[in-house]
Structures are given as structure tokens and as C-alpha cells.
Design a protein that fits this description.
Elements: H1 10-31, H2 35-45, H3 50-78, E1 84-88, H4 97-100, E2 106-108, H5 127-130, E3 136-140, H6 153-166, E4 170-178, E5 181-188, E6 194-196, H7 201-213, E7 225-229, E8 236-239, E9 244-248, H8 254-260, H9 271-295, H10 299-320, H11 324-328, H12 331-338, H13 344-355, H14 362-372
Parallel strand pairs: 6-7, 7-9
Antiparallel strand pairs: 1-2, 1-3, 4-5, 5-6, 8-9
């Protein structure tokens, strides 16, 4: 099947593949790509199946992240900062026994952990200890941290059982996907449509806050799913595709809201106004879908037709004042409009501002209400 003169240099081939895989990994880290995207890149380099690509991507990403932490710890130590390193597992039943026994174990910065690794997913370690590892590590400073007792597999299992028992009020898991966001949420008992990633004080306070706001924001009752996220880059987002509201679990944290929202970038200044903003997105899309059904036209066409007068008015104002949107509405709305003249953020922000009588452009308000009501 091979040409007679074909010569295979296995050593050279391995070096080439390693170089390509390392390039893909470096590119993924620099560009902030997801694990799925890195796995896609790995599959382009070698002929591995999807499951292998995911596991290899996870192992490579874990090793690169923890290798970076090790470099940071070394730099700190060179400046005279006294520190050790502490092994932290993923905290679930999938953790292998040898890593479960290391949870909370600390060693000197220059030392290896009892399993022979310098850090989780250390590429120089034994494959049985490295492959598919999801663990991490953190700096432990003897002068400031309280020493945890060394772990064992038995104590780790006891801790895990105790942790799982503390969240027994969560039901079956459900997968959610919105754009690049892919999460698994657990149904919170006592609520018809609330799903949470984890059970914490922040989560429960945020769920209770949303329930309280339903009185002033009736559309919250019409959302199919409310998904409370543990660590998201945004405060809240509405996905019209599956009629779901995604909310950061820290929504109820006033300090977090002040830092993330009340900074002059958004029209919303607090948690309630943030949720109003998202529900104005829902109201906007509800009208688009309703007109699409009644007319038989595609929703994209309906959206364009519905927003024509508003878009024309905004562009006319920009002729006289280039930063018209930013000055009168928000930087958030301006940034969105700069991308393909998208009016979604402008519409929601104008409605929020109108609710609190914080906008004077009567014609703009009239045009926005024609689009949304």
C-alpha cells in the first residue's frame, strides 16, 4: 500500500506531532479557548478519536496551568517569599484514589508530591498519575495559612459523602447551552424551573432575590429556566433560543454588583435593574416571535423590519453627535451598536432608563416602545 521508496522516520514524526500539539496548546491558552476548542485542534493534528482528544486536551491544559503556577511560585520564592504548595482535587467521586489521598497535602516549593509529581498533570510524571487529571494546586504560606490535616482516601470519601449530603435538595442534572456557554445545572427542589451549579449561601440568596423581584418584573415568571452559575464572566444573560435566564450566583452580593454593574458602563445600576434589562430582551424577542408566527415571515426579517425606524433615528442622531448612544444611553449600548448596528442592548437599556425617568429623548423612547410593546 506504500510507495516502494517511502521512508518513515518515526522519531522525526513524533517530534513533529509534539511540536504541533504544543503549538495548539499555547495558542489555546493565549487566545482563551475552551477545552472543546483545544480538543478540536488536537484532532486536526493527529488522527485521535473525540474521546481521546478531550482527555488529551484536559491533561495538557491542566499541566500547562499548573506548570504556570509552579513558575509563579518559583519567582515568588526567589524574591524571598516563604511558601509551600498544596494539592487540591476536583472534589468529586471521579478523583482517582492516589489523588484523593493528596487533597490538602502540602510540600516544599522545590519538592515533589508523594506521587512523584511536581504539580498536577506534570508531563514528566507517570502516565497513570498524569493522564486525564483535573486537579490543581495553590500556594500555602505557613505564616498565614492554617495547616490542614493530611488526607487519606477514607477521609476524602467521608468528606465527599458529607458534601453530597449537603446538596441533597438538588434534583436531576440538566445540560444547558448558550453560545459558547455549556453548563450542567441541578434542579433545585421547591422550584419549578431553577437550576444551580452548586449549593451555596450566594446561590440561595440569589434565588430568593429573583423570587422577590417577580412581583415587580412579571416576565421572570414566564422564563422556562433560571440557571444560577457559579463562576460566569457576566452578571446575567437571557437566551431567547431556549427562553432561559442565566444569572451569576453573586447577583445578591451588593459589593459584587457595585463593582460589575454600577460603574458607568451599563444603564442598570443594581440587581433589580439588571434583571429588568434581561427581561426587556425577552419582551423584545417575544414580540418578534409573535409577529413571525402571525405573518409567516422569518424572525430575522421581522426583527429588521420592526427596528427600521428606530435604527434610522439613531443613525440620524449620530450624524449630529457621534457618541449619541454612549452619552444618552450607555457605553454598553454604544458598543453593541458598533457591531453590525445591533439594537438589542440599546432597546433594553432605554427601557431601564425610562423606568427610572433617567432619559429625556422622548422620540427615542416612543420608537423603542413601538419595537418592544
Amino acid at each position: 500500500m506504500f510507495p516502494k521508496n517511502l521512508k518513515i522516520n518515526e522519531k522525526k514524526d513524533v517530534v513533529w506531532n509534539k511540536k504541533k500539539l504544543n503549538n495548539a496548546l499555547t495558542s489555546a491558552i493565549v487566545q482563551g479557548k475552551t477545552l472543546k476548542e483545544l480538543a478540536d485542534s488536537f484532532q486536526h493534528v493527529t488522527d485521535m478519536n473525540r474521546n481521546s482528544a478531550i482527555r488529551n486536551a484536559r491533561t495538557a491544559m491542566t499541566g500547562a496551568q499548573n506548570g504556570g503556577r509552579q513558575k509563579t511560585f518559583n519567582d515568588a520564592a526567589s524574591m524571598g517569599i516563604e511558601l509551600q504548595k498544596e494539592w487540591i482535587t476536583a472534589g468529586d467521586a471521579r478523583v482517582r484514589d492516589s489523588h484523593a489521598a493528596l487533597d490538602g497535602v502540602t510540600v516544599g516549593n522545590e519538592e515533589t508530591f508523594p506521587n512523584g509529581l511536581r504539580f498536577p498533570a506534570d508531563p514528566n510524571g507517570s502516565p497513570s498519575e498524569v493522564y486525564n487529571c483535573r486537579c490543581t494546586m495553590q500556594a500555602y504560606m505557613p505564616k498565614y495559612n492554617q495547616k490542614r490535616t493530611e488526607n487519606t482516601v477514607e477521609s476524602y470519601r467521608e468528606w465527599l459523602e458529607e458534601k453530597e449530603a449537603s446538596v441533597d435538595n438538588m434534583g436531576m442534572a440538566k445540560n444547558f447551552s448558550s453560545g459558547s456557554l455549556k453548563v450542567k445545572g441541578y434542579k433545585l427542589k421547591g422550584f419549578d424551573n431553577v437550576y444551580v451549579q452548586h449549593y451555596s449561601k450566594d446561590t440561595i440568596e440569589t434565588v430568593n432575590m429573583i423570587e422577590k423581584f417577580k412581583k415587580n418584573i412579571p416576565l421572570l415568571k414566564e422564563v422556562d429556566n433560571v440557571v444560577i452559575l457559579r463562576n460566569s464572566s457576566f452578571v446575567a444573560a437571557y437566551d431567547h433560543g431556549d427562553n432561559s435566564l442565566y444569572v451569576n450566583s453573586k447577583l445578591s452580593d451588593a459589593k459584587y454588583i457595585k463593582q460589575e454593574v454600577n460603574n458607568g458602563y451599563y444603564a442598570a445600576k443594581n440587581a433589580e435593574e439588571t434583571l429588568k434589562h434581561e427581561m426587556y430582551h425577552k419582551q423584545h424577542w417575544d414580540k418578534i416571535f409573535s409577529l413571525s408566527v402571525s405573518s409567516g415571515k422569518d424572525s430575522d426579517i421581522i426583527k429588521q423590519e420592526l427596528e427600521n425606524d428606530l435604527r434610522k433615528y439613531v443613525k440620524e442622531q449620530q450624524v449630529y453627535e457621534r457618541k449619541y448612544i454612549q452619552k444618552n444611553i450607555s457605553k454598553n449600548a454604544q458598543k453593541a451598536f458598533n457591531r453590525n448596528e445591533n439594537l438589542n442592548e440599546l432597546i433594553a437599556d432605554v427601557m431601564v432608563l425610562d423606568d427610572k425617568k433617567a432619559i429625556d429623548d422622548i422620540r427615542l423612547i416612543e420608537l423603542v416602545k413601538e419595537v418592544i410593546t
